Amino acid sequence: MAKGEGAESGSAAGLLPTGILQASDRPVQVKEPKKKQQLSICNKLCYAVGGAPYQLTGCALGFFLQIYLLDVAKVEPLPASIILFVGRAWDAFTDPLVGFCISKSSWTRLGRLMPWIIFSTPLAIIAYFLIWFVPDFPPGMGRSHGFLWYLLFYCLFETLVTCFHVPYSALTMFISTEQSERDSATAYRMTVEVLGTVIGTAIQGQIVGQANAPCFQDQNGSAIVNRTQSTTSLKETQNAYLLAAGIIASIYVICAIILALGVREQRESYEAQQAESMPFFQGLRLVMSHGPYVKLIAGFLFTSLAFMLVEGNFALFCTYTLGFRNEFQNLLLAIMLSATFTIPIWQWFLTRFGKKTAVYVGISSAVPFLILVALMKSNLIVTYVVAIAAGVSVAAAFLLPWSMLPDVIDDFHLKHPNSPGTEPIFFSFYVFFTKFASGVSLGVSTLSLDFAEYQTQGCSQPEQVKFTLKMLVTMAPIILILLGLLLFKLYPIDEEKRRQNKKALQALRDEASSSGCSDTDSTELASIL
Length: 529
Prior knowledge:
A two-stranded antiparallel ribbon has the order 1-2. Mean pLDDT is 78; it is low at 1-34, 218-230, 270-275 and 515-529. By secondary structure, it is mostly helical. The protein is built from 20 helices and 2 strands. Helix 4 (52-71) runs parallel beside helix 8 (179-209), helix 8 packs antiparallel against helix 16 (380-415) and helix 15 packs antiparallel against helix 16 (380-415). InterPro entries: MFS_2 (IPR039672), MFS_trans_sf (IPR036259). Belongs to the major facilitator superfamily. The chain crosses the membrane at residues 45-69, 113-135, 147-168, 240-263, 293-310, 330-350, 357-375, 381-405, 425-447, 467-491. Keywords: Cell membrane, Disulfide bond, Endoplasmic reticulum, Glycoprotein, Lipid transport, Membrane, Symport, Transmembrane, Transmembrane helix, Transport.
């Protein structure tokens, strides 16, 4: 390699005009190769902690908002399905909108992304707290006003948390220029995020689980009538949700402070030479026409939808289909703890066998356990075993998308070296599609329960409701996972391609950071690559 570089230097010197060679009396020195840019463990931990707020709040909303609206806030199934779908659809829409605004932002002393994270945090926690507050509206106005209350603050919170999460996701590309360091930081991040879901599940589940919404059964022939047993008990349940919201909001603030103090954005040398960022819609057109990105999104769209269906209906499934009303929060905790402990194993697996192989093995491992849940009768011990095993697949679903997306962005930068500022577009539209899928899953789930005649605040449900929940948690996710894995066959970036991109990008960075580098030189090098 050194011999080749020396030959190229000699050839280039022979082609240069004499005047240029005489411009300096000092002999040309061979540049030492740059040392690998390493992040300290402290840097990685501070970066990783920033992923916890989104998972804390997302876990609480994903697992508990549906049952909260139906059984605590006493919203009817149809309006509840509208709240869940519109809230997630609005959340999905705000991702590219925030991505657009970030792409137009200029670099400040704090960076380009960090100001969004800092200033959105206080407003987000206020909106989050109000989601879990049951207002006391005048008689006769509770239904319409309650519907508008939850819709407004759900959409407002999702907008504000997007202003936190999109820049945080894009921050992956600015903490280091080294692929291996970014992958390592991503593994730290995924571990903390899964730990965040564990904490969110423990806080929300254990506090709320101690004060379940009351229900009452009265046999009148073959009919079951569901009524509120005690207004006092319902008030205690509402206060339990508020207490959990207050604790989660406090952790949100602490994590945001640690992230802001412990992480510094690093600007790419070749990006710094660009006069301004690419126009948003021009960048969007290039991003959405980038084949590896489209194929990655398509694959994870189906697999994410599968896990979101399980997440959104798991509490109702455990409560009514399996009959574990007082155990579902502990089952959630078992899943998330299992996922937390297996994140490092998946990080080792993907570095040893490749990311595409990890996708096939990790995500497909959920299928046998979903089949077992569909076929078995209610058994608490078997359910705990299945929950722990399912956590292994959940860990892979957490880690792999965010580990593979930087590879796609690197591939894009090689093909379009003069397109700075596109990172937020990549991350925001990936989150857009997954959140839109989440909105569809929650809306369809709640609407399906409405068609199956779900009984609000019921201690039990009709058989058609139990069957609907079983299909939403087992068969539908299995079909979606299989479709997603088929689409991953088309994803072109394997380990060999990743290594080639890494070498080419390093050459581009070295050329851009050298003293004699010009914009023309960088463009020529990228064209050759």
